[in-house]
Amino acid sequence: MIQAVLFDWGGTLSQHVDVDLLEMWRAAAQVLAPDDPDPVAQQLLEAETAWWRTNVEHGDRSGTTEALVRSVATATHLDVEGALEAYHRAWGATVAHDPAAVAVLTGLRERGLRTGLLSNTHWPRALHDAWLADAGLLDLLDVRLYTCEMTHMKPHPEAFGALLRAVGVPAERAVFVGDRPRDDVWGAQRAGMRTVLLRGRPVEAWDVVPDAELDTLDGLLEVVDAWR
User: Fold this and answer.
1) 3-class DSSP state of 176
2) pTM of the predicted model, to two decimals?
């Protein structure tokens, strides 16, 4: 019996978009170093790339955007808060959600199923919640967990364990939907959950077989109904 359907955010509830990561960091660099932002933007991008690589290698540790920016902007007179706001605004302009997300989440709740979100992110909760609210999704998710507030990120068992405890459903009665074979599918399967992979995204491959595959969220209700 399926009792909960749980989701990744980036590339799953939100749509994948091709973004120039250096341009995103340039928005922050223009606040930190307005006279010469390009070298600082490059430093920030390199710091983020190293952060992801190092944290995955050391057991999928999590962290925050603020800590990342402060690791580059070490001089106390630099406007770190202003840089963060500019960086987040730049990303906000790129955010769009799957057109089917509202109907799918509404359909799940109409079936009496719990819903939830677990996102690997160093961005703050308030930012994600604002984007979800703008898309009409915030109140359709019973639980929202962001790894910026956690010790580990997906696929670490601790992250999925926290999600299952928060939603109050045993792993064997939960489905996890995501676009990353390692983080979402492999991690959720190790936790004992069924999985749905949203395929076709430019993400890292992983040797794992999901329980179902879709191109978009369209069709998810039919998959869940078949399992119920």
Assistant:
1) strand
2) 0.86
